[in-house]
Amino acid sequence: MQVLHVCSEIFPLLKTGGLADVIGALPAAQIEGGVDTRVLVPAFPDILRGVADAKAVATGESFAGDYTLLFGHFNGVGIYLIDAPHLYERPGSPYHDTNLYAYTDNVLRFALLGWVAAEMASGLDPLWKPDIVHAHDWHAGLAPAYIAARGGPAKTVFTVHNLAYQGMFYAHHMNDIDLPWSFFDMNGLEFNGQISYLKAGLFYADHITAVSPTYAREITEPQFAYGMEGLLKQRQLEGRLSGILNGVDGKIWDPAHDLLLTARYNRDTLEEKAENKRQLQIAMGLKVNEKMPLFAVVSRLTSQKGLDLVLEALPGLLEQGGQLVILGAGDPVLQEGFLAAAAEHPGQVGVQIGYHEAFSHRIMGGADVILVPSRFEPCGLTQLYGLKYGTLPLVRRTGGLADTVSDSSLENLADGIASGFVFEDSNAWSLLRAIRRAFVLWSRPSLWRFVQRQAMGMDFSWQVAAQSYRDLYQRLL
Question: For the chain, which residues make up each domain, given as ranges?
């Protein structure tokens, strides 16, 4: 079975979010499981530099100009790169310029990604042809449409990592992207009078997956579906929508072997974690005190992530004797709010604006609780890292957070399945009650240690997800 993943970023070469982590780990896990898996990405400068052995395997002309298809390897995975410097060789992120304006030709840049995937399904590389084309998020959403337009030379899977991003473009661009105008239809890629690359993926793929079982259910409901609920409900009824939980890359996230930590530890040597906490308190200018529970946020600072609720609940957290560490960037109002809190509560609140991969490991290794109070969360990787590091997640019951964290209720403690703290309603009062429960558990050190061990023993490896995808591919074939 030959599988081609189509996407726009891959960790560690180019990352703007969790999508890159998935593509950095899932293909390798699939290869380990015996599936011949490769990846197709645009030749963005950072990716091109990282795939040092890339050689041309084909050249072609397209509606978006000439391109060369390169093939090389990274971390043992075969990578195809679409080399079209006039489209991809730019500063800034893959999606927008240094002033954060979306590139005006994104309509062509990401149409070409889907179109080359269809070319590959039709045999562009004479030595390798996919049976399954697995497209990710709106950037690759046209791949299933182009493949459908050619009569389906490969089966297609489309994975939704975040339904909020829909890849919307003006209708007149149908003239530019080499798809029949008949595809511009309610039963097609038309959405509110525009082209939606996301809807193209949802409509034309043979199967849709979401990155957690709960998120797969949630996106059939109006409050999570951004207007796509009718189509997604239909796909669910047809048995063409399912949820497969993301995994954690154990080569990168494992406290027993993580060289970014001051002290390494496992579930049997949890006392070593205390040194990481001490170093984190020093680094963030906090009072060094192992008896104060240290709460942490590692996140984009947005209201989707519920971080306005953290600001609102912060006085209550500090009154009970807790500390807070923040690593992230985003909404200027939230950034200002957290910086003001750090100035007002020196020794109790530490804030680092920006994102540093290495520092996120130090926070995960040193904190006691990781806060993920999201309003919606397709899968969430932060809470999975928290579980792995014995840093108990405190989460809202939504999406992948609901699927991965069990509340430390009396029943769950008795059944030995407690792994964190879960609250229901998206408000500061509900969050504060969960924080209060965390303090109560913290006051019972042996019980806290019991829950940490339980959390660290859970299996969220990519091998589990890779097997689920393999089963899905086999059903489609």
Answer: 2-247+462-476, 270-456
Instruction: Give the model confidence (pLDDT) of 131-176 as tens digits.
Output: 999 999 999 999 999 999 999 999 999 999 999 999 999 999 999 9
What value does the mean pLDDT take over residues 97-105?
91
Compute the distance between CA of residue 178 and CA of residue 115 in angstroms, rounded to an integer.
Answer: 9
CATH code at 2-247+462-476: 3.40.50.2000
Phi-psi category of 171—alpha, beta or left, where left has phi over 0 and alpha has psi -120 to 50? Answer: alpha
CB contact at 8 A, 44 and 186: no
Instruction: Tell me the CA distances in angstroms from 338 to 263, 296, 297, one per residue in order.
Output: 29, 12, 11
Encoded tokens for 272: 């070593």
Q: How far is it, in rounded angstroms, from Cα 213 to Cα 327?
A: 28
What are the pLDDT digits (tens) for 349-367? 999 999 898 999 999 999 9
Task: Look at domain 270-456 and name its CATH class.
Answer: alpha beta
R_g of the chain computed on alpha carbons:
23
Please give the Cα distance from 477 to 472 (Å, whole number). Answer: 9
pLDDT of residue 17: 82
Does 422 have pLDDT greater than 90? Answer: yes
pLDDT in tens, 365-402: 999 999 999 999 999 999 999 999 999 999 999 999 99
The dihedral built from the CA positions of residue 106, 110, 116 and 122, taken in this order, carries a sign that is: negative
The reply to whether domains 2-247+462-476 and 270-456 share a CATH topology is yes
